[in-house]
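Standup notes
- DV: blocked on the single-chain target, sequence here:
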Amino acid sequence: MTGTSFGNSKESVTALYKQYVRPVMEYACPAWTPGLARMHHDTMQRTQNAALRIATGSTRSTPVQHLHNECKVIPLRQHMDMRGAQFMAKAEGTSHPCHHFHTPTATPRAVRMTPARHLKDCLEAVPPCPQDTSIVRHIHNTYASRAIEERGANTILGRPLRRLTLQRLCFPELTGSTCAG
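- DV (later): unblocked, structure below
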């Protein structure tokens, strides 16, 4: 598919990762994510980082933040929490088979964090949904916005990255800027 001197575009390889690899890693993640040990989560994140490095042709020393920026992918933990919040939002309907998650029952033993409690916390962390937006899209936009805000400053520039639009690059006379290169 790709190598150092040949291969598909970054967008194609990233799309393949998002469509084939990540769904396998995240299969049924709302059920097992709350109990996932940090070590196992880190292993999964390293798998995502390796896929993003392949897609971008980056070296191992490339900061993970840069990989996420370049491929427009949020960290795996945040993505799994987003999927869980979307699941809980869908389960609010009384006809949903998992609606019972919204009415927790007492367990015979002390459980630190049940999957239902963790997912409910993820859903409660999302601000109220605007009227013209679906709840699933709103949750996605909220988690994506948070991930972008958390990225912070670029390590080399010392400030957050700004994306140049195609219009600014191709038609500088329209924006009042000069074209470099």
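- Follow-up: Residues 10-175 form one domain.
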